[in-house]
Amino acid sequence: MELRQVDIDKFNKGRESDNPRFWSRFSEKPDLTGATVLDVGCGWGSLCVDMALAGAQKVVGLDLKSELIDFANENLKQSYPELTKIVEFKDIDLKYYYDDVLFDFIVSKDTFEHIIDLAEMLGKMKKRLKPGGRVYAGFGPLYTSPYGDHDRRRTAFRSWRLWGRLLALIPWGHLLMESTLIEMSRRYRGRKINSVYDLGLNRMSVSDFRRVFRESGLSIIDFRVNQSNSIQSKVFSLLRRIAFLEDYCTHNIYCILEKR
């Protein structure tokens, strides 16, 4: 299998910039020496490779996109043959992953905002953790933040040319034109789309995430928001102190959950 350059570039970007930034936004980075680790939403597999190189004993990467898993497996064989007995990639939902291994850590990067039934997923994660095991999840933008539609407007409104591009730039615009977004996405994609959920967005705000985490049975060890050095993020961090603006001015979450 020949690896596409666009996929190689995505993988390298993960190792060079995305992964270091991911870990820097938590209060701590776990000691991976000898650990068993599960990566939910592993994408091109760069984080899995990094964790194996950091000393993990076993790393499993799961993703629903089979083309990304195909790349991850082939790239592992071609570029990191020494890790093939440590790292494995599977295109499967965690709920259908039946291996009986328990993990010291579960990591998830830029995935939680897309999981429709997050409560169920956290339940599955809890069952997969060893006692004292931890979940490290970092994700955003949240749906109720200014661009929480993850560029769905830009794609759906493409036929409107300049007007469509302008609509995609309006902060919080997806909240005001949700029904239009759904209708235009249905036309663009040519398939049945009845809600934002069908676009892979769970519509959750920071208040929703906090509630689901509390109800999960996992202990919240650390909970950080707006982890970015941008001016916009700093302004939002000030505005979110106003109670009714918190959900709309919180754009990402980095949290550590533990199974007691």
Output the keywords.
single chain; 260 residues; alpha/beta; Rossmann fold; 2 domains; seven-stranded mixed sheet; 7 strands; globular
Please describe what this structure looks like.
- With 260 residues, this protein is α/β, with parallel strands linked by helices.
- The chain folds into two domains: 5-143 and 203-258, Vaccinia Virus protein VP39 (Rossmann fold, 3-Layer(aba) Sandwich), CATH 3.40.50.150; 152-199, no CATH class.
- It is 39% helix and 17% strand.
- The protein has a seven-stranded mixed beta sheet with strand order 3-2-1-4-5-7-6, with helices on both faces.
- The longest helix has 20 residues, at 5-24.
- It is globular and about 50 Å long.
Give a summary of the structure in a few sentences.
This protein has 260 residues and is an alpha/beta fold. The protein has helices at residues 5-24, 46-53, 66-79, 118-128, 152-156, 161-168, 173-176, 178-189, 206-215, 231-239; strands spanning 36-40, 58-62, 87-90, 103-109, 129-139, 219-225, 253-258.
Helix content: 25-40%
Order of adjacent strands in the largest pleated sheet: 3-2-1-4-5-7-6
Tell me the Rg in angstroms. 19 Å
What is the overall pLDDT average?
96
Give the tally of structural domains. 2
Principal-axes geometry comes out as globular
The CATH class assignment of the largest domain is Alpha Beta
What is the third-level CATH name, the topology of the largest domain? Rossmann fold
Q: In the CATH hierarchy, what is the architecture of the largest domain at level 2?
A: 3-Layer(aba) Sandwich
Number of helices: 10
Structural class assignment = alpha/beta
Distance between the termini: 44 Å
Specify the CATH homologous superfamily of the largest domain.
Vaccinia Virus protein VP39
Listing every helix as H and every strand as E from the N terminus to the C terminus, the arrangement reads HEHEHEEHEHHHHHEHE
